[in-house]
Description:
Strand order of the largest sheet: 1-3-4-6-5
Order of helices and strands: EEEEEEE
Shape: globular
Amino acid sequence: xQIKDLKPNSPIDEIEVVVESIEEPRxxxxxxxxGRVVNASVRDETGRVKLTLWNDDxxxxxxxxxxxxxxxxxxxxRGELQIGVGKFGKLFVKDAR
Length: 97
C-alpha cells in the first residue's frame, strides 16, 4: 500500500514510509493511565502523511528512519489524515545510519 491509496477509517495491511520530521513527544493522563504520544511527518514516493506513535514506540524512530507498519490503521483527525499501529499492528524500524 502507498500513501496515495490511504482512506480515512480504513485498515492498512502494510505500508513503508520514511520519517521526515518528529514533533516533541507529549505526556498524557487519561482514565486508562499515563502515557506518551508523538506525531511524525512521513513520506513515500506518492505523498506525505502524519504518523502517530504511542508509549514505547515513541523512542523507536528518528528522522531518516524507514518504517514498515503491518496491520495498522488510517484515520482522519481534525481534518488531517493520520496513520498508526493501533493495538494489534506491528511497527518495524530500520535506522538510516
